User: Fold these one by one.
Assistant:
Number 1:
Amino acid sequence: MNQLHFPIISLVTFFPIFGVLILLMIDKENEDVLRGTALAFTVIEFFLSLPLLIYFNDGTAGMQFVEHFPWIRSMGITYHLGIDGISLWIVMLTTFLTPICVLCSWSYIQKHVKEYMICMLLLETAMLGALVALDLILFYVFWELMLIPMYLLIGVWGGPQRVYAAVKFFIYTAAGSVFMLLSILFLYYYNHKVTGVYTFDILELYKLNVPISVQFWLCLAFFVSFAIKVPMFPLHTWLPDAHVQAPTAGSVILAGVLLKMGTYGFLRFAMPLFPYATHQYMPVIATLSVIGIIYGALVAMVQPDMKKLVAYSSVSHLGYVMLGLFALNMQGIEGGIYQMLNHGISTGALFLIVGMIYERRHTRMIKDFGGIAKVMPVFATFFMIATLSSVAVPGTNGFVGEFMILVGAFRAYPVFAVFAASGAIFGAVYMLWMYQRVMFCPLDKPENEKLKDLNVREIITLLPLAVLVFVMGFFPGMFLRKMDASVSHFIKDFNSRYEMYAQQRQQSLGEKIAAVTATPAAGSSAVVE
Amino acid sequence: MEMLEFVVPALNVKAILPQLILSLTALTVLLVDVFADREAGKTSAANGLIAVVGVVAALFSALLTIGMRESAYSGMVLADGFSSFISVIICVVALLTVLSSINYQRSCPALDSGEYYCLLLFAAVGMMFMGAAGNLLLLFLALETMSISIYVLAGFRSTDAKSIESALKYFLLGAFASGFLLFGFALLYGATGTMDVVKIGAFLTAHPEVIHSRLLLGGVALMTVGFGFKMAMFPFHMWTPDVYEGAPTVVTGFMATGVKAAAFAAFMRVFFIALGHLQVDWTAIMWLAAFLTMTIGNVVALSQTNIKRMLAYSSIAHAGYLLVGFVAGTKMGQAAILFYLLSYAFTNLGAFGVIALLAKKDGGEYTELKDFAGLGFKYPGMGLAMAVFMFSMAGIPPASGFMGKFYLFSSAIKSGFVWLAIFGVINSVISLYYYLRVTVVMYFQEAEEEVVMPKASPAIVVGLVLAALGVLQMGILPSYLWDLAQFSIKTMIM
Amino acid sequence: MFDKVWLIPIFPIIGVLINGLLGRRIEEINKDIVHWVACVAVGLSFVLTCVLFFQMLGLPPDQRLYEFTWFDWISGGVLHTYVAYQIDPLSMMMCMFVTGVGFLIHVYSIGYMYHEEGRYYRFFTYLNLFMFSMINLILANNYLLLFLGWEGVGLCSYLLIGFWFSEEANAIAGKKAFITNRVGDFGFILGLLLLYTQLGAHGVWSLQFSEVFPHVHLLSPSMATAICLLLFVGCTAKSAQIPLYVWLPDAMAGPTPVSALIHAATMVTSGVYMIARSNILYSLSPFAMGVVATFGALTAIFAASIGLVQNDIKKVLAYSTVSQLGYMFLGLGVGAFAAGMFHVLTHAFFKALLFLGSGSVIHAMHHGLHKVHSHADAQDMRNMGGLKDKTPITYVTFLIATLAIAGIPGFSGFFSKDEILWQTYAHGHFVLWLIGAVAAGMTAFYMFRLVFMTFFNECRAPDGAAEHLHESPKSMTVPLMILAFLAAVGGYLGVPKALGGNNRIEHFLEPVMGLGPEKLLKKAGAAMAGGAHHLAEAAHGAAEHAAAAGHAVAGHAAAMAEHAGAHHSLFAEYLLMGISVAIALIGIFIAYTMYIRKRELPAKLAESFPFLYRLLLNKWYVDELYELVVIKPIHGFSQLLWKGVDVAIVDGTVNGVARVVGWFSGVIRYLQSGYVQSYAVSVVLGTVVLIIYYFIKALS
């Protein structure tokens, strides 16, 4: 369905590329013009994406604004785009965060401004593409394409260990996704064998009945790939390195959107494609999620580097998201999606904040600070808001997500939910401890005495996030309502297909037992009698 | 016994049009060069430009004849879709090589001579005939035409000991391998009584008892050695790094792509058409060869610091990937090989073109990885091009390398070689490391010493842009070429 | 008019927005606007509350419940929560004193905080935010909104404890408060989840009080116990009970008005409020009630014991608060919910007064010490003395509050505390009563110790600071006087029957608390009977059986009620009252002896029982114990996870794989010798392998 009769998604997805072309024409010495142009494009991009929100039809679970054209006809690969309640908000988050990232790089990025902005715009296109693609190959192309600009962002504009971090990021994620590619191919040929149709269209592949034994392997490949991206324990070690080394905007985008690709991938691809295997993996995923929640929080607690602390907190937060998604009920999944948005906003804000202080002091070590709130009260306020959101105080967005996830998880597996809830304690511990050591206590370092408070640009950067923290905290209905139809359809569809597989399994087991017992049955039954 | 009859075959120009055009161009270059009035120490692009015109003409003729499906010259030449596609690949290879050479000749003035372009074009003719040969004899002649030209080309930097060494090694080992190949042909002839590829196939259909005769199998083994050597298949790959490193950079690129394409073409023609009945037998050993070739290539490439050597190992690895399609053995696998060869031509020649771009006036070259430090930002166009080629080789979308691997591994999975596909993707991940390292050096590191790129000649700029466009075209909109590759395989003369 | 209830929380939040966003500018222009905004906001809330309160009084008792749903909050699937408020006697009573006392303390803060430069507006922003959260907590008609207030007040407490954040101790105290509360909230939220899912299993997907309570009887007894205990974990943190009370004494690092408002009068009682609100739920679980009562009693005596020897004036009051909260829980635990709430009310008056009085003292001390440039501790009672004459209003009001807390008949604390003790005894908990009575004696002792050390004898302030001590400004003393009045007479709201009153508070709260254990059981029995009748249509025989069971339960409940009423005579009540008054007087007498008459006695006692003295002085070493048992191990474990698991194992594996491949690469690379001969050999070897392979194929 395309209610606008206009390829709005393509426009939104590829508009940044247009920006890249314009940027290419600008002389690299004109740094402010470059920055301004990039900002203009990302802001326009955000407004371009608003019709998606405005014309979005809450009532339907199906794909909207659909565009569907053949791409590689002989392989059945199509250019199929669409948005539903699951992807809508993540798309909006992406277009919302990118201008903020450009803005926060204004003075942070001093070398190779042109290339930097080009990378940002390319990244935006890749991320949006991955979110709206409904063809597995199209998705895969965007999925991998995301790696390149991010790799460059970390590697060129990153910290001292940037090369290691960038390469690790790239290889780690690529290593996971190649197996997904194989799994996709296998599914594709299997589908052809069964239906006689060559297609990579997920809406078609959803209908496929994959033999259970095969399903486990295919599902595993998808899971590993997405789990690396999320990242789930124990595949998370690329994340702290990448975050710490990346420039501020890189971290914001990485935390805000890129990690969501993993969780989104689970929801869009892995889970609905393989309901039976997903169901069987549920305990494993839930366990790993809970370990991630607690593990991330505990490790965050002992980090001396602010950015690393926030990075590990991401591991913990994403653990919640995964737990919610795998609760497989309305509260869990909606909470999971909501938490994805929250994480983008609160962790994004935290990275911005760490970046701002780093820009002033060129250190991120917690011990180098103390008492900053005295000289930077505005900064302290924003930092506090982000902290509260991160520790999920009611009234902030974080609470809504966390509570829904806990409700969902508690309904699905109470024991895990209990452990997950304990993560909230550790969350408060590490965030407040950091806040206390950085912002409070005596201002005893002379370098810190002359720190300037935030300037107007920085306030503009943070303000939308801070406002959203509360808007999303008090009025989550605005956001959740748009997901309802899609999520409930997702669950219904998932459950009915799971039932189908379960019955199949029952049947085949029954047949096996019958086959085994058939021959000696006469004799043994006689003995029993 | 058949009467030996001397028949003058009808002159079918169309069947060998691209080859003919190239041969004539080669001669023209040679002639023009004789009359050229040249000041000492100055180079001109005249030879190169003539070659470009010839190659482009050949390319068009190859494209025009792509719908042909006929056996010409008593079955000596098979002018079918397959040979046309190979001709297209070879023309692309030749074109990009010539365009690079025009720039490269200021570092290596010897290249600015009629002989160079002449040899290059003749080598290309040989390659094309390898793709079109319907007879083992012609195949061998074509192979030697190609090889001998390249032996010479490899040693063209006559002042450089490494170049000489490279040529000599290549010659010695090449001759060695050719011997195996020829002996293999002989055994095949002994077993089947014919040199004609199509007829061998027909003979084996008629006489299944011959299929597992020692004579035939011995021939198959020896031919595998001969082709394997040219393709740089494990364990016949050892020459590759040394030769690639020493040869003039543009020649290296030419070898890495053209020779590989031609060797694969011939290999496929012989094995699928003539020896199709033995597919079950050679699949297992080729499976192993594919696995070892890509693994050895990739793993050893990891520890290289010289970019030419690194690309040499990478080319071994790519031979391994191509063999995956070969193992798959289906029409799709074969089409995937063709597609990959073309993609690889664009990618690899692009990469070597960038290295050639950096060649110094005094004849030296920047071939150590560290020489590339910081160049990404200093020369953004060049950096971007190199990055595109590296990502393509690594198989990252939307570059053509991704699509190429996609088709190859698809075909493997379709044929049930899931494990080979798995090893294939694991290898791509390993390869990521060294391809990324090029971008790491270019973009993430500061230059240690000042590397100054001489002003690029328009020819090479055109060449690199073409290569990059080719890479992106095949990556983003592969449909047309993929259909063409499939068509080529379908119209192969059986 | 009831539908304007949402304005009550709105006024303070408007104050927050004005002062929070523009406060810095406003403060630069005119400091007074800041406190005007804040005080008016709270004042309006108070006025509106009063209006609604009296409107509600106009209704017959059984109609005193009004729910107002403002907007949809968190909803998804079967989860529906609303931002919705409810007006009933309990919420209105709480709201009355919260906004009232809150308003007084806002006014008091003007004088106390006026000298704060550059962050005056922040103080009032936080205070208003606190009022907003607290009002939400009280007025919420569901558990989730209550939880919003619950955490919100915790947050404000954190912010206000750390208000003078440049002192490390303050910052740490704030963090400690927040984290301890988080531990409690962990329990609370699990309680909510359990309640929600358990009721949901019976088709009641709701957290709304008016839907939850009529259905709690559906819960199995063990589940009800579990839910109650989990919710109580939340209370132990918020209302500072054993084992999570540790944050409250440290919280005294905050400005004194904060201590008065948050850490004495309002926030810390929210746990009591929550249990009182959930009385129907708790009544289902005698075990949980027992736990509440036991923890309450233990906390009461434990905290009192620490209070005996503290020298910091606010620390004494802090432990006293912990101890008094213990009483409240004791009351709740024995089923005297109304008595517990009554004590909340009186405690709010006298404890707020005590804190504000101590604030006035500290204010004076600060001023005096500042004048003579002394760095002596302004809160240490050993530096005080003789303030009776310097700060007369403070003294008098303080004394009234002390009499109230000590349980001297006629003052408010007497009525409420005695009601609790009497109910404890009446419900058959003799040991708990004894503990409570002893703690009452201790209370009287340490409070009078405080009064004597502060206001009596000679002034011990160093460097002649004594001359500079004087009474606080009007904005501070007027609230003191108002509170003193309330502390003195507030008890008459709930004079028990035994003393000729009619237990007005209890009657007032009846619509909420009416469902005591007895009535609830009746109701459950009736429900069972009703359900049984329903079933009867389907299965006759079984229904009769069930109906019989239902009636039996109802009958048992009636018997219990009778039992409670008849067993204890009026005489016993007088006797107990007499005993507790006597104990209080003994406590006062001992304090008088030790701190007025024989002032060398305390030192002697400390010398003769050094271990006990140090134990009490160091608060039973509980903080140290937690550090050793909880914090250190977790920290160490985290370090291990980071350095051991993350860096060594996980990353080690990843990098290890890379290294192995690299090493392998280096090894193979040496096969590349550069000699043509060796290359030829490899070709030959390869050929041999191929030939062998094909020949084997040929054989097979």
Number 2:
Amino acid sequence: MTVSEFATSWIIAPTILPAITAAILILMRRSDIEVQRFLSVVSTLMLLGVALFLYDAVNDGVTQAYRLGAWPAPFGIVLVIDRLSTTMLVLTAGLALAVLLYAIAGWDRRGRHFHALFHFQLLGLNGAFLTGDLFNLFVFFEVMLIASYGLMLHGGGAKRLRAGFQYVAINLIASSLFLVAVGLIYGVTGTLNFADLAVKARAVSENDQALLQTGAILLLLVFAIKAAFVPLHWWLPATYAAASAPVAALFAIMTKVGAYAIVRIFGTVFGDGTEAETLGSVVAPWVVPAALVTLAVGTAGLLGTRRLLNFAAFSIVASMGTLLIAIGQFSIDGLTAALYYLVHSTIAGAALFLIVDLIAARRTVKLDALIPGNPISQAAILGTLFFLVAIAVVGLPPLSGFVGKLLVLDATYGVPRAWLIWATILVTSLMMTIAFARAGSTIFWKTEGQTTGPGWETAAIMPMVVVGLLVGASLMLAVFAGPAVKALHATAEQALDTQAYVRAVLGSRENTEPARPITEPAADADVMPVPPQEAGGD
Amino acid sequence: MELIVSSAIGLMTAAGVYLILQQRTFPIVVGLTLLSYAINIFLFTSGRLVINEPPIIRGAESYTDPLPQALVLTAIVISFGMTALIVVLALRGFLETATDRADLPEDDLPDETETGS
């Protein structure tokens, strides 16, 4: 077994590992919280290891496919890794580890099955990044969402229940739209495999074009709901502000799944928007205007909100705006900037939710309300961390937000209506600076009365360390911006190279399929055989 | 048959959307259920409507496409599970807040009974 075949078998590991971990965790007694935490952290560390291994395995720029049950694509299920998938895997595992370390300081005790749901969530996320067909994207979205419903309600309370109802309802509607899109695309092309779809969508007859384009627009709508595009963003602030802080921090990656899916479907599968006849060009005109409005609405929310948790949620909306401006270019430079900003905004968004939680936990009277209150304990270190996170989120030097916004501005320099994009990004950055300055000074400076919150003897150190690590990650991303951008540039090139993707999934059938009947499972597939049907979810 | 099936899908979708736009949780749940029924039939028809044909290709001149049936099966399972979940959510929400409105109350400023969440 050569190195690359060895790596190919590992492609399924990021979905198997959390599934097994979650199953074991469910079987544990609730009182064994220490054992659960240990298992959970070890599994997440292993997941990070696997993700880094896979990242290294595709670092040569060759897309690799794993065929479940050795059924040839496009008939069987394929999982595909390229630089884009593995970058997302590494980001997810890293974020999951940080969030987990934060949660085991106490949040995981406030409800049942936190760790099991957490790993089911990772299963769905990793699956969505790995899958090579549209229907399994739907299935993994559902896995991810089902786990997120449970996580969102973690901790209980009337407010979470009511916000949770909205969250579930909007996502059920999104799932219905997704299925309509799947039905339309399957009805026209007769396939759901990404690579096969890339070939067949270009050969669709003139009469069926309208149906295919309707399917593409519906898909964009679904991903827009996930990515919190204006006007489909209304669920996000209510949901994220109602969820517990570690969950909201983990959800920072959930909006990015929408962004990833847009890149994968409209960048890789349906081709880039530069070719006039591709489907990418049908949706491309919608992305940038929506992204500009998203950024503006997110910033307005930052200025207008009166709660810190909503504040953090609106910063996610604003960051999605900036991210989607870059994605909407559907160019290699735009996508490079988008990926850098994606990594940055995931880290910064998660850090903001965690620091806000630390602050709110110490304001025993005013909680997360943005009104003057009592001074809080450990104000110096929390204030510094808040300041640093604010710098990262707003995009001031020296943290990665600055580099990210610079890259986005640079990528949109020559495009039509660049002035509008530049003006929106720069003005909203200024507004965000004002909003953060106002929030920080209200909480840390406009104080009176007794200091509230735990002293150094009783306060948990781990949560602060985690926020510090996330800020450190943002700093590292800025310091090593050169190598990072170089790697992401290669990622962007690969993500927009439809031909290479198609070749990797469909073309190499003869090389990887030995001469044996296709109904016989591969002997070297040392993982659970799965029936050769779409997810077989009965 | 095409007319019956397509108008059934259209009617159920319309009724589902109307119910989803209501303010109370129960009509929304029913609306989501109707919508998912409509979607299931729609998915089924994406393999074209044929009668009395086997879902396999074995020397048959005509056959019915088996893939949409697999898709519908998965979709039914998922939407059934989701409906159960949202019913429980709606019930818990009603029991804890004594109202079944689906919109969120305005609570800009914290009341002092909340506990650091």
